[in-house]
Amino acid sequence: MGSVTLVDSEVNKKVADGNNYFTFNAQLVDKYGHPLKKAGLNIEWSHNKEQQITLSAASTTTNDSGIASVTLKSSKIAVDDIIVYAKYRVPPLKPADKKVSFVGDIKTAKVGKSILNDADNNKIADGHPTS
């Protein structure tokens, strides 16, 4: 396995909205690092998280340039530091060049709940602090 790269390497965080995704490419190379331009070779994909994120396929095949692609799709749960791995035939797994994250959407932020941080919720309003 040569390299596993995030296709849009400028963006490594996207909103966890159930629709966003990242695309990864794996390039096969020989032991000298030369690209293997052969179609139809099976690349297996995995990632390091158990949360509800999914790869578009457990395996994909290379194109005529020896490149296989997979997409990692978000759920609506934020997940940080996801590493995508590719493998050709035998280990080791080759990690992608960048970790990615699906994050909360700041544009839709709201207060989830307010909590009284005092055991005494019945105080006298006389202008004097209580201890």
Question: In terms of topology, how is this protein built?
Answer:
Blueprint: E1 3-6, E2 13-15, E3 21-27, E4 42-47, E5 54-55, E6 59-61, E7 67-73, E8 79-82, E9 84-88, E10 94-95, E11 100-103
Parallel strand pairs: 2-11
Antiparallel strand pairs: 1-3, 3-7, 4-6, 4-9, 5-7, 8-11, 9-10
Describe the model.
This protein has 131 residues and is mainly β. The protein has one domain (3-104): Immunoglobulin-like. It has strands at 3-6, 13-15, 21-27, 42-47, 54-55, 59-61, 67-73, 79-82, 84-88, 94-95, 100-103. A four-stranded antiparallel β-sheet has the order 1-3-7-5, with no helix packed on it. It is rod-shaped. The N and C termini lie far apart (66 Å).
Helix-residue proportion: under 10%
| pLDDT < 50 runs, ≥5 residues | none
CATH topology value: Immunoglobulin-like
Q: How many angstroms separate the termini?
A: 66 Å
Using the alpha-carbon principal axes, give the shape.
Answer: rod-shaped
Q: Give the count of structural domains.
A: 1
Question: Could you write a compact summary of the structure shown?
Answer:
The chain has 131 residues and is mostly beta strands. It has strands at 3-6, 13-15, 21-27, 42-47, 54-55, 59-61, 67-73, 79-82, 84-88, 94-95, 100-103.
